[in-house]
Amino acid sequence: MAQPIRPPRRPAVAPGGVDRIVEGPKPKHAQLREILRRMADEELPPGAAIPSERELAERFGVSRLTVREAVGQLVADGVLTRVRGRGTFIARQRLDQQPYLMSFTEDMRRRGLTPTTELLRSGEEVPPPATAAALGLAPGEPAYRVERLRRADGAPLAVERGWFHPRMLPGLLDADLTGSLYALLAERYRVHLDDGRQTVWAEAAKSDTARLLGVPCGSPLLVFHRATSAKGQPVEQMTSWFRGDRYQLTMQLDRNVPGSGPEVPP
User: Fold this and answer.
1) Which of 55-60's residues contact partners 24+ apart within 8 Å by CB, and which partners?
2) pTM above 0.85, yes or no
3) Is the pLDDT of residue 195 over 50?
4) What are the residues whose beta carbons fall under 8 Å from the beta carbon of 243, sequence distance 6 or more?
5) Taking the CB of residue 253, how many other CB atoms lie within 10 A of it?
6) Which residues of 128-165 are buried (b: 16+ CB within 10 A; e: fewer)?
7) How confident is the model at residue 11 (pLDDT cuts 50, 70, 90)?
8) Residues 6+ apart with CB under 8 A from 235
9) Contact, 177 vs 145, CB < 8 A?
10) Which range is least confidently modeled, 4-13, 97-106, 132-141, 154-163?
């Protein structure tokens, strides 16, 4: 499909020094932050490197401390991202995660991205007591354990570590686990997940997860812990670690608290 014709981008630093740092009431780091933000919005594509601290300090005639403060604020705002040992880059747009019961494969395809999955580990093991209780298993009864790395357009986005009810899904480990598990459950077992409960929290990436996701150890991650069922029967307990620089969560909020009755006007 033909791409729309867009007007040429204005250079981040225009000829003749139109974008320059001047003495005045606005702090120099704030002026530089605006210039770098325009660079991210109008000049450089996501994933591109920005000039080094030394280069920016020389170009705009400011101290490296001023550069560091401006860049640090843009990193905090999610406009830029730092990669240890490599430099600072224009941040890629975050994928907006909606609180729907949807598979990763379906979600990525809906966004026009190509999902791929690498099976890291699978086996039959006795789960922790909390997981066994969530799946309705007897003490000491084994469950299916599956760990996978999920990618979109080749970029690693999430690590999944989950447990599945073996009596609901006999022979699951013999199936191809590199596609959509939700589609597999529906097509092979006629199990359609229709209910779930999910908890989300932030966590710093531990070494093994950071390595799989290609991010520095300690990078921010969004963790989704989900238990799902079909017709009231527990099927899955899954924990997914998503890259914090690529994901955000959006929720519809309501002032009414469940069970609180009608809202009383102030």
Assistant:
1) 56/32, 59/13, 60/20, 60/21, 60/32, 60/35
2) no
3) yes
4) 156, 157, 158, 213, 215, 219, 221, 222
5) 4
6) eeebbebbebeeeeebbbbbbbbbbeeebbbbbbbbbb
7) very low
8) 135, 164, 165, 168, 169, 185, 191, 193, 228, 229
9) no
10) 4-13
Domain parsing of the chain, residue ranges = 28-90, 95-249
CA 168 – CA 249 distance, rounded (Å): 31
pLDDT of residue 154: 79
Thinking of the domain 95-249, which architecture would CATH place it in? 3-Layer(aba) Sandwich (3.40)
Question: pLDDT (tens digit, 9 = 90+) per residue, 64-102?
Answer: 999 999 998 888 767 787 877 788 888 766 555 555 556
* CATH code for the structural domain at 28-90: 1.10.10.10
